[in-house]
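job 3f2a | input accepted
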Amino acid sequence: MKTFYIIPYSATGISIIARFIFMYLLYTKKSTNIYSLIFCILNIISSSLWINYSIIVSDLPIIVRGSSDLFLFTISCMYILYNRNQEYNTSKLILPR
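job 3f2a | predicted structure (97 res):
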């Protein structure tokens, strides 16, 4: 691997690891926080824009990072929405479970 590629691929790897840590915290805390949801939605939009830009300039590390971010943030967003739905359905019950 050329020295030129070490920095972008290292940054991509660190970014992906950070996303997995975010997902782990979401899973363990069962987050329904609206700020986590907004954070995920904004990152989905940002990742989509980065993918378009990286295709235009033909930059593979940014394509990899944008694609992985888009995938991981979409999963996180769905998980938050699922937890919010579960929390809402539980709060509507007359008798607690």
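job 3f2a | Helices lie at 3-29, 34-57, 60-91.
job 3f2a | closed
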